[in-house]
Amino acid sequence: MRRMLPATPARRSLLVAAAAALLPFAITAQTAVTPPDSVFGYKDFAAQAKIDQTFLAVPDAKLAGEELKTLTAAPHIAASKEDYATAEYVAGKFKAAGLETTIVPYKVWLNLPVESKIVATTADGKQLMTGRLSHTL
What we know:
Blueprint: H1 9-29, H2 46-57, H3 61-71, H4 81-96, E1 117-121, E2 127-132
Antiparallel strand pairs: 1-2
């Protein structure tokens, strides 16, 4: 039986940060950038420039887009089975990249709405339409 781990703001933030952090690098990797000859704080920037070029050559904008589609394919409300599946997916990617990765359970207070609906009104408050949102909590 799969154990559901409660979501934490830190874990959700990590997922969002990981996805957001990859996108600029993926876009930057598509254009050739000549490293500067010198950078403040480095006696010899050549070694760091080589590391930077190797790092920037890895990301791919198409792959970043595919990963983003995967991560956002289903609503993943905190502490839901979809949230845990998202955490497992990201942990798997981190492990595949050689990073030591662990999903740590936390007990947190989490308020969930009883009902999700949308109501459209005019500026004077007259209700135009109403409906329930399709996602489940």
